[in-house]
Design brief:
There is one protein chain. Helices cover 22% and strands 26% of the residues. The protein is an alpha/beta fold.
Length: 255
């Protein structure tokens, strides 16, 4: 299995002859959405960086797409246009099917929370995600993580935009994924509590993950203050850095 980190939560999983695009925010710098904060952090249109130079070559190989939720830092208009132009088959939460179909996107299959179904020669299960602490989660709406396994390959848990919950803990400790992807930008709006795991919960996630961890959702949108360097320092102090890969945009890693 080869995993390419493109930017933010957008990544590509290569397994066998399948090339799976996850959460396609594909717009150029500043093209995907207005600023997510105006007071707490510097206002900037999103994304705040461009896609890496190798993105086009990687995207040309995509055979399938996974979408965890509908926020513009996970699927923007450029992502929609890419999926429509290529008629890329998409797997998503059953809660998002109607909205995605209305955009002209080809839905191949949908998943419910805790439901396990066949997926490209393997299996996929929908995992509940809670996008924020307290009232913030209600504003953010429905999000789904995915636990994916293929024969003779590493299993992978895409936790998506979530705080640390009983569902997250169950996947890490009972499903025991070989690879776990966690959003580490500690996103926050001008009001309310954080939308993603606070640093203590990121450390808890890394500690409880049985295999390798990939940290993403950093340095790409303006409401995510935690940098790669800051996260690396925190993990180092907690003796967890050896478990966690913090990829640069465009970086690939074989598992």
């Amino acid at each position: 299995m080869k995993i390419h980190h493109l930017r933010n939560a957008t990544l590509i999983i290569e397994v066998g002859d399948q090339v799976i695009l996850v959460d396609p925010m594909l717009g150029k710098k500043g093209e995907s959405s207005p600023s997510f904060t105006f007071f707490r952090f510097k206002p900037q249109r999103n994304p705040i960086v461009n896609l890496p130079d190798n993105a086009a070559a990687l995207l040309s190989k995509v055979t399938h797409c996974l979408i965890t939720h509908l926020h513009p830092d996970h699927i923007d208009q450029s992502g929609v246009e890419f999926l429509k132009a290529n008629q890329t088959p998409v797997t998503c939460s059953a809660k998002d099917e109607t909205k995605l179909k209305s955009k002209g996107i080809k839905i191949a299959q949908t998943v419910n929370y805790w439901e396990e179904i066949d997926f490209l020669g393997g299996r996929i299960q929908g995992i509940p995600a809670v996008h924020g602490y307290g009232f913030a989660a209600k504003l953010m709406g429905d999000v789904m993580g995915f636990f994916i396994s293929f024969p003779n390959e590493k299993s992978i848990y895409l936790s998506s935009d979530t705080i640390y919950t009983e569902a997250v803990h169950k996947v890490l400790t009972e499903f025991k994924p070989d690879i776990s992807v966690v959003a580490c930008g500690t996103a926050q709006l001008d009001l309310f509590q954080p939308l993603l795991m606070r640093t203590e919960d990121i450390l808890k996630f890394a500690h409880n993950a049985p295999g390798k961890v990939i940290a993403n959702h950093m340095e790409a949108v303006n409401h995510c203050p935690t940098s790669r360097h800051q996260l690396s320092e925190l993990l180092h102090k907690s003796n967890l850095l050896s478990k966690v890969h913090i990829p640069e945009d465009g970086e690939e890693k074989v598992y």
